[in-house]
Amino acid sequence: MSFRGDAHKLYMKLNKVYKHDKPLGQVRELLEIEEIRAFYQTIETATLKLIYYRMTKEKQGSGIIPIFVTSIPWFFFLFSKQLQEFLFKEGSFLFLLFGIFYMVTLTISVIVHFRENAWAAVHIEIIQDIVDERGKQNT
Questions:
Q1: 64 Cβ neighbours under 8 A, 6+ residues apart
Q2: Which distant-in-sequence residues (6+ apart) come within 8 Å of 112 by Cβ?
Q3: Rounded to whole angstroms, what are the CA distances from 136 to 39, 41, 119, 126, 130?
Q4: Where does the chain cross the membrane (predicted)?
Q5: Could you give the CA distance from residue 79 to residue 77 in angstroms, rounded to a whole number?
Q6: Region of 21 on the Ramachandran plot (φ > 0 left; ψ -120 to 50 alpha; else beta)
Q7: What are phi and psi of 90, to 5 degrees?
Q8: How far apart, in whole angstroms, are the C-alpha atoms of residue 10 and residue 7?
Q9: Is the confidence at residue 64, as pLDDT, over 70?
Q10: What b/e readout covers 24-35, taking b as 16+ CB neighbours within 10 angstroms?
């Protein structure tokens, strides 16, 4: 198990495949990227630029998850007295259940948000590379 992140895990996987004399291009993660790239190569440059702008907007926008992460605690703060009365009415079991539910939801939301940002960055890079390649071919 490695806590070095996805980039290091990919390196380890590629290294293992390479040592077994298998083609690196057949690794699932690389095939996935190649499939995305092949799709974008079929689209005309003007449309690709529009897609690029939209992807950049998505990547730069805050999105619903960060708003959720920051607004829910304030919502709970506004109703803290009523919330405490409700959660502690039956002892601390409801509070514990609420706390676990909130932390799990928060954790999943943050993970999803960062994965979405990472995929937006991949799409942006692929589109930008294709547009740049086409620009060099036309000059």
A1: none
A2: 65
A3: 20, 15, 26, 15, 10
A4: 63-80, 92-114
A5: 5
A6: left
A7: -100, 25
A8: 5
A9: no
A10: eeebeebeeeee
Q: What is the pLDDT of residues 84-116, one digit of tens each?
A: 776 667 666 766 777 788 788 888 888 888 888
CA 124 from chain centre, in angstroms, equals: 13
Please tell me the distance from the alpha carbon of residue 26 to that of residue 14, in angstroms, as a whole number.
10
Amino acid identity for residue 80 in this structure: S
3-state secondary structure of 2: coil
pTM of the entire predicted model: 0.71
Tokens describing residue 127:
């589109």
State which amino acid sits at residue 96: L
Q: Where are the alpha helices (DSSP H) in the chain?
A: 6-19, 28-41, 45-60, 64-78, 80-89, 93-138
For 15, the token pair is: 């290294």
